[in-house]
């Protein structure tokens, strides 16, 4: 097992997840809220929805995505639990 390769893939995955999380929570919920509030989603302004609920849903999806991808990375580098 090449531990440098394993940690490089792990950190790249974490970085990608953090970028998506930051974009959805801070970018859509704070920085772009005025522009997104012009769009209606489920009866709410989209900026408000991202600030209150959307970023939470994205975070939950990221948790499952991270777990799924880490299982593949673990198996690839033969450090899985199976």
From TrEMBL:
The chain crosses the membrane at residues 12-33, 48-67. Pfam families: DUF4212 (PF13937). Keywords: Membrane, Transmembrane, Transmembrane helix. Residues 4-80 form the Sodium symporter small subunit domain. The keyword Transmembrane helix applies. The keyword Transmembrane applies. NCBIfam families: Na_symport_sm. This is Sodium symporter small subunit domain-containing protein.
